[in-house]
Amino acid sequence: MLKSMGQGLLGFTLLINAACAESWFVTDWRKQAAAGDVNAQWQLGLALANGRGVEKNEAEAIQWIRKAAEQGNASSQYSLGLMYATGIGIAKDLKETLRWYRLSAAQGDVYALNSLAAMYASGTGVPQDKTEALKCYRLSAE
């Protein structure tokens, strides 16, 4: 019984420490994001979108991710495209999804390339084009 209580306390302690660490990272990202660091803007946006280390706030998440995406951050461009694709914090819009995926894919982001390939393969938001889908899949595998 003592062993299981100890394991439970250890797990609880690790959970609290993880939450504190996440909160610390969010505080640091917020400072860096405000200073113009695009990676911190993206990380802060993701934390806000998922409620990791901070209260979930999809509207603020979109603002930070968009800010980084507009500065050319490929990961942010993919994330913004994904948010448009799924309607997380913003109205679904396949034209915007395609726009942001293409910008990210042009920088070699494999997630954007895979997502573009899936759109072309299924004809989602674009005319179905198996050749273009295969091209994107190949590029993402390189």
Folded structure, characterized:
The protein is mainly α and 142 residues long. It has one domain: Serine Threonine Protein Phosphatase 5, Tetratricopeptide repeat. The protein has helices spanning 2-34, 38-50, 58-70, 74-86, 94-105, 110-122, 130-141. It starts with a helix and ends with a helix.
Summed up:
This protein has 142 residues and is mainly alpha-helical. It contains seven helices and no strands.
Radius of gyration: 19 Å
CATH class descriptor name: Mainly Alpha
Total beta strands: 0
Shape: elongated
Measured between the Cα atoms of the first and last residue, the distance is 53 Å
Low-confidence stretches: 1-21
Helical stretch count? 7
Number of domains: 1
The CATH topology annotation reads as: Serine Threonine Protein Phosphatase 5, Tetratricopeptide repeat
Average predicted local confidence, pLDDT: 85
DSSP helix fraction: over 70%
Q: Please, what is the CATH homologous superfamily?
A: Tetratricopeptide repeat domain
CATH architecture: Alpha Horseshoe
Q: Could you spell the SSE succession in H and E letters?
A: HHHHHHH
Largest sheet: none
Overall structural class, as computed from helix and strand content, comes to mainly alpha
Beta content comes to under 5%
